Amino acid sequence: MKPELHTYEAWLLDRWEGRLTAEQERELEAFLLLHPDLRPEPGPLPIIGPGTVEALPKESLYRSLPPKGMPDPARLDDFLAARMEGELDAAQEQALDLFLQRHPWAAKQAQWMALARMEPVPMAFPGKERLKRRRGLVIPIWGRMAAAASVLLLVGLGIRFNEGPDPTMGPLVRLEKPLPTHPGKDGRTGAETPSSASGGATAVPDTEIAHGSTSVHGPRKERASLKERHDKEPAVDVPRQAALAAKETVKGSTGATDPLPLADDPGPVAHAPEPIGQPVIRQGVQGDEAPVAARSVAQQASAPAPTDQTLGQALANITRERVLNSQPRRAVLDGEDLLAMADKAAGALGGGVELQRSGEGGRLRLRLGRRVSISVGVGR
Amino acid sequence: MDLHADGIYRFAHKHLRDLEQAKDVVQESFARLWQRVEEVDGTKARSYLFTTAHHLLVDNVRYAGRQVPLEPKHDGYAAGTAPPPDLKEILDAALAQLPPVQRSVVLLRDLEGYSYEEIASATGLNVTQVKVYIYRGRTALKNHIGSLENVL
Fold it and tell me: B41 in contact with A at a CB cutoff of 8 Å?
């Protein structure tokens, strides 16, 4: 290998370090004879010793603000800025003035620096009224939406489970034997009950209600006859009757054919004082008619038996008891309940509902009652 | 509140060079103050407002890509195709070239007369950093003015 134009420097370094052989020395010398301009100047290469770095003034590596000492070209900007900030002492001020007089280019820099200050110009923010604190209840919109979603879910469940009986579902309770019929005073018999109308093993009336089936006379006719008796005859405690009807159902399911013993215990129940706040339907019950009549009342009246109500009825009654503070009924949520809900909501709002629109920014404010208002703005 | 609103409005307008965005910054700053009014010392409300505004402005510049180079119209000055700008326009253009934090520091110093300590409190920097930013900012403004001197 011979030295070339792009490798001769490495050859030179190797020579200085004494790593060339005699033959390589001859090759390098021949190359330098051909290229005398590439021959290095005589003398040793400069060597950077460890003390050279330590000799550098470390202070010069730090920038001192405001600048210390007297102005110089390298730190002129710092001195000019420090003058604007008022951070030069008197001696530095004099030295800077002298420096600027001696160096016209520096004076030009000082002139530009003097212009580099933002002058405060008065600006008034329009619409300061909008910045004032608005006192009132802050309603997070997601909370409202969650409440609305909950109500919708409840209503949806109510509708779903109150749509009527599923024809594919069997009765909740079924008697093994038909209930006995009892002739009444007016000549009607237990045929009022669907059990005797359909004959054979038949669901108890509660089950029929759940399935929406009708009696011989139809439910409307049956209710009419009940209302007729209701107007004539003394009161009967409906829950009591419902309990007795349930008892009767149990007996019937065990195959007992004896008349239900409601008539054996009519006195205290029929003539007991009416409890306040409980639904009471006055129903005349006499003799053997009593069990059937009581059962019919229990079927059609509002007292729900915990064992035979549908889920929709249960939800409706929970709503009535816990939200509307009304008595449970067998019926699902109906117009009466909706009215009660509306009345409850209006009572809660108290001061009424008002919708205002402010002129600026198209802001809408919905006031609900005396203490709640929702303000909505359009845009930013 | 009036003085603070005007000051923040001016600060934001100089920062963003956009009146509508400046209004948004003022409203947002006050909205945040009212949200935490129970926690903010009344004597530090001004500092709280400017701190909030500073952060909003820096976020705005960083995320909306408002760090644009010198506006093209200044190229027109040199070409002689546009009327020469006045000093205010030159300074505004030079200010727009500064990094957002540096811009806030210079504006708080010049427009609001804040001390180094107040600026440090508002911007979350230390006093030394504030000094460095101010010196650098002034030098940058000076150099920008000098670069257009022949045009003017």
Answer: no
Domain map of chain B by residue range?
A: 1-66, 70-152
What fold does the segment set B1-66 form as a domain? Answer: Rna Polymerase Sigma Factor; Chain: A (1.10.1740)
Residues A289 and A373 in one domain: no
**Chain B contact for A81 (CB, 8 A cutoff):** yes
Residues A275 and A208 in one domain: yes
SS3 at position A254? coil
User: Nearest C-alpha of chain B: how many angstroms from A91?
Assistant: 21
Interface mutation target, options B139, B145, B147, B150, chain A, most CBs of A under 10 Å = B139
- The answer to whether residues A295 and A233 belong to one domain is yes
Complex ipTM, two decimals?
0.80
Q: What is the pLDDT of residues B56-111, one digit of tens each?
A: 988 887 776 655 554 544 444 544 555 566 788 888 888 988 999 999 999 999 99
H-assigned helices in chain B: 2-16, 19-35, 45-64, 72-79, 87-97, 100-110, 116-123, 127-147
Give ∠ CA B46-B49-B50 in degrees, rounded to 5: 90
Answer whether residue A25 is part of any domain: yes
pLDDT in tens, A157-211: 776 666 555 555 555 555 555 555 544 444 444 444 444 444 443 434 443 443 4
Asked if A47 reaches chain B (Cβ–Cβ under 8 Å), the answer is: no
Question: How confident is the model over A274-283, as pLDDT tens digits?
Answer: 444 444 444 4
Is the CB of A338 inside 8 Å of chain B's CB atoms? no
Q: For residue A1, is it within any domain?
A: no
Instruction: Give which of B54, B101, B95, B102 is closest to B71, Cα–Cα.
Output: B95
Task: Give residue A147's Cα distance to chain centre.
Answer: 9
Could you list the residue range(s) of the whole structural domain that residue A321 is in? 141-162+311-349
Calculate mean pLDDT across residues A271-297.
44
Report yes or no on A119 lying in a domain: no
CB contact under 8 A, A116 and B145: yes
**CB-CB contact of B4 with B25 (8 Å):** no
Same domain, A375 and A342: no
Which helix (H) or strand (E) is A281 found in, with range? strand A280-282
Contacts for A20 with CB less than 8 Å, ≥ 6 apart: A11, A14, A28
Angstrom distance (rounded) from CA A374 to CA B9: 28
The enclosing H or E element of A235 equals: strand A235-237
Give domain status of residue A78, yes or no: yes
Strands A235-237 and A364-368, by their bridges, are unpaired
Task: Spell out the CATH class of B70-152.
Answer: mainly alpha
